[in-house]
Task: structure prediction
Amino acid sequence: SDQQEYQKIAKQRADLEEVVTRFRELRDIERQIAEAREMMDSDPEMREIAREEYDRLQEQLPEAQSQLKLLLLPKDPNDDKNVIVEVRSGTGGEEASLFAQELYRMYLRYAERRNWKVEILSEQETGLGGIKEVVFSIQGKGAYSRLKFESGVHRVQRVPATESGGRIHTSAATVAVLPEMEDVEVHIAPEDIEIDTYRASGAGGQHVNKTSSAIRITHKPTGIVVACQDERSQFQNKDKAMRMLRAKLYEAQLKERDSAQTERRRLQVGSGDRSEKIRTYNFPQSRVTDHRVNVTVHNIPAIMDG
Result:
């Protein structure tokens, strides 16, 4: 009768189900290996067939063991949470803003391929089609587990559209990925926040000039400030801003609770300087290199398309 408890137990069962299935598969392979070995020793007529079966099963065994080991590794408790992603232009002026826009599109395409839902929370565009900053939420199974290692500085090397001399420039954009928290996980006392309203800027026609629908929320104990002006309704903007604030407060709590572990587990965005890169996108060579794991892939169009 307790729906919340039912959902919790159903999730635990789903998490265990794959482990149990893999364990049974491994046990079955080990049983078949023992039977094939016994047949090789006891039945001369079947020895050759049994040896082929034995060799085939021995090849399958390491993969089955490896898959089970991976499933038994301790999970990050946030892995199944939805995420709030922040993409900002870093060093490199307008070219950095254009690259930030392309990274943003890359994540949208990736989310689309996985049938995840995307919602824009805040966006600041530049004059030439780039973005200074965009904040958006992604809702879908395992979103945080798949996106958490995107946090950091992304460096791009290419000839900018604004470059007339054909020289290759290096620019950077930063990405931050935060697990989205529910109300029950992060308590925000009403007296701890200050809410300001102001008129939204940018496209929107007469509505922009007539109403103060944009919302800015300041969390007084921490000084964290979030703002949202994407919606026409003040209520909708406030709801989005509170979601952003909860994610930021939870991130701050994680760092405070165990800063050493958090530093190891979470890749920090840093200052946005090119030297702090986690990944380099080299367009002339169609090459993407992840500097943390020393992996290089030569297919930029496919990667930038999600």
Q: What stands out?
A: The chain is about 45% helix and 25% strand. Residues 79 and 146 are 8 Å apart (CA to CA). The first strand starts at residue 83 and ends at 89. The two ends are 42 Å apart (CA to CA).
